[in-house]
Amino acid sequence: MDTTMLLTAEEVAEQLRVNVNTVRRYIRSGRLPAIRLGKGYRVRAEDLEAFLRSLATTSSREVEDEEPLSPEDLAAIHRGMEDIQAGRYIPLDELDAWREAGAEDAARRLEEVEAEIPPEELKAYLTEIAKRAKPVRWNARRSEFEEVRP
Predict the structure, then answer these.
(1) CA separation (Å) from 51 to 27, 60, 146, 148?
(2) Exposure of 145 by Cβ count < 10 A (0-12 exposed, 13-18 middle, 19+ buried)?
(3) Residue 73 DSSP symbol
(4) 146, CA 20 to 30 Å: which among 14, 48, 52, 86?
(5) Are 135 and 110 found together in one domain?
């Protein structure tokens, strides 16, 4: 029997000191290999080490080549900050439901900016994404997401 150590997404998040949703995004995007067991994921310790090595080997040249945020993105972040201050924002669990419903582009863009933007600005950015996304809700009877119609 193989004695490979399997870590939960929560354990990986604790080791990386990131939110468990970040780990789940890494898994869903294929950046971090994982095994699906029931409703959760398990990550082999070796796969986590390889993932960390791949992050550590990113050359400074690659980082320099990344595009800075556009003026439009920065304006959206500031608008979102104003929305948060006014109490107009979308809870993260609701945003996760939107991602699960197919907003992969939002998840990818969130990964790009997550490490560099202060949390309050990040929430503002998510608010702007939510404004552009089609609102959905979970239909428990049919076990699927459905678009919310006005």
Answers:
(1) 11, 18, 35, 38
(2) middle
(3) H
(4) 86
(5) yes
Beta strands 40-44 and 35-37 are antiparallel
Whether residue 1 lies inside any domain: the answer is no
121 to 29, 81, 83, 86, 102: CA distances (angstroms) = 24, 6, 11, 14, 23
d(CA 83, CA 114): 19
Do 74 and 141 share a domain, yes or no? yes
Burial 28-46 (b: 16+ CB within 10 A, else e): eeeebebeeeeeebbbbee
Supply the pTM of this predicted model.
Answer: 0.39
Structure tokens that stand for 150 in this block: 């006005």
> Rounded mean pLDDT of 8-31?
90
Task: Give the domain range for residue 102.
Answer: 67-147
